[in-house]
From TrEMBL:
One of the GO BP terms on file: proteolysis
Annotated InterPro entries: Glutamyl_endopeptidase, Peptidase_S1_PA, Peptidase_S1_PA_chymotrypsin, Peptidase_S1B, TRYPSIN_HIS
Compositionally skewed regions (Polar residues) per UniProt: 1-20
Catalytic class of the enzyme: hydrolase
Name assigned to this protein: Glutamyl endopeptidase, blaSE
Annotated Gene3D superfamilies: Trypsin-like serine proteases (2.40.10.10)
Keyword terms: Hydrolase, Protease, Serine protease, Signal
Pfam annotation, one family: Trypsin_2
Region (Disordered): 1-43
UniProt EC number: 3.4.21.19
GO-annotated molecular function: serine-type endopeptidase activity
Family to which the UniProt record says this protein belongs: Belongs to the peptidase S1B family.
């Protein structure tokens, strides 16, 4: 693959900043997590795994899966090995009509087998509040839904097709970010951005493996200081194979503004993609796929580390893998939002 595919591109409204400073890192998924302070640097562990610290002020579970009331864990342990049917998810998968209804395209992200998704309520706890409902205004005026998640006070990761739509004219006009939205509730408020990034592999070459991007909020809108943000990791194939992973986002087949969780094993690992039997639906494009560990050791990725950016359907569903190139771009974007 051409290395230029990983070159960063920005929309015309983007402005660059070069802030500096430290952040607090709380890396444990366990109930007795402690705060620690660390510079915003990457850390290497065994098997070539590389982690970037996140920041949260509360934890909500333990082990490799989040603790979510009503979620059936047994099926998750055994599901995920089998035949995969692939199809592409189009950029604008759900339209928000004037009545607030959702109109679906022919291709959708998928519920694989039994639909065992669980609604998150309340959403104002970690890690759920670090995930945001996106309301995207496309160049042609169409409004669509998506999901994003914080990696710094002003930077959110999402799917490339949430910031740049090949089907609808290119860069989004604007994106409203609503962290921890729960129906009509907006516990942390909202902010609107016109500053977006992606990579040439998506904006110029339409490569689905490069379908990722970011939103940088205005300097006066540091929502991540209130919600906290995820760490992320570039893991080896060995560390990823059959890993139990978590995903949560804002699916369009459920009530508007409600967040839903599912989990499952990674069934296939490639250089640029992760495949898994985690149930999703249109609207969850851009949501985080993360590993969870009870360890507090940053060097071994203790706590929550996002490993993929969810963006495509089929059974299995798929994420862009956070490999070395994606990790590097994310770290650049993270710094621009500190």
């Amino acid at each position: 693959m051409n290395n230029s595919y990983d070159e960063i591109v920005a929309n015309s409204n983007a402005t660059e900043t070069n802030p500096s400073g430290d952040l607090d890192a709380n890396k444990s998924c366990g109930p007795d997590a402690e705060h620690a302070s660390s510079a915003s640097i990457s850390e290497s562990a065994a098997d070539g795994d590389v982690y970037e610290a996140g920041f949260d002020v509360q934890t909500h579970g333990g082990g490799q899966l989040e603790t979510v009331a009503g979620f059936e864990y047994l099926g998750t342990m055994i599901e995920g090995i089998g035949t995969e049917d692939d199809f592409a998810l189009p950029e604008a998968s759900e339209t928000i009509s004037s009545a607030g209804r959702v109109e679906f395209n022919d291709y959708q992200e998928s519920v694989c087998g039994v639909d065992d998704r669980v609604q998150i309520d309340p959403v104002a706890n970690v890690p759920w509040r670090m995930i945001a409902q996106l309301i995207i205004t496309l160049p042609n005026g169409m409004r669509v839904r998506g999901t994003g998640w914080f990696i710094s006070p002003r930077t959110l990761m999402t799917a490339g097709h949430c910031v740049f739509s090949h089907q609808n004219g290119g860069w989004a006009q604007s994106i409203e970010v609503i962290p921890a939205m729960n129906g009509r509730k907006r516990p942390f408020g909202s902010a609107t951005s016109t500053n977006f990034k992606s990579v040439k592999g998506w904006t110029e070459n339409k490569e689905t493996s490069h379908d990722y991007g970011c939103i940088i909020l205005p300097e006066t809108s540091r929502l991540g200081d209130k919600t906290g943000w995820f760490g992320y990791a570039n893991l080896s194939d060995t560390s990823l194979e059959s890993l139990l992973a978590n995903n949560s986002g804002y699916p369009g087949d459920k009530s508007f503004g409600t967040q839903w969780y599912n989990a499952g094993r990674i069934s296939k690992v490639t250089d640029k993609r992760l495949h898994y039997m985690i149930d999703t639906a249109p609207g969850q494009s851009g949501s985080p796929t993360w590993k969870c560990s009870a360890s507090k050791n940053n060097m071994t990725g203790g706590g929550r580390s996002v490993i993929g950016i969810h963006n495509y359907g089929g059974c299995a569903n798929k994420s862009t893998r956070i490999n070395k190139a994606v990790f590097s771009n994310m770290t650049t974007w993270k710094q621009q939002g500190l």
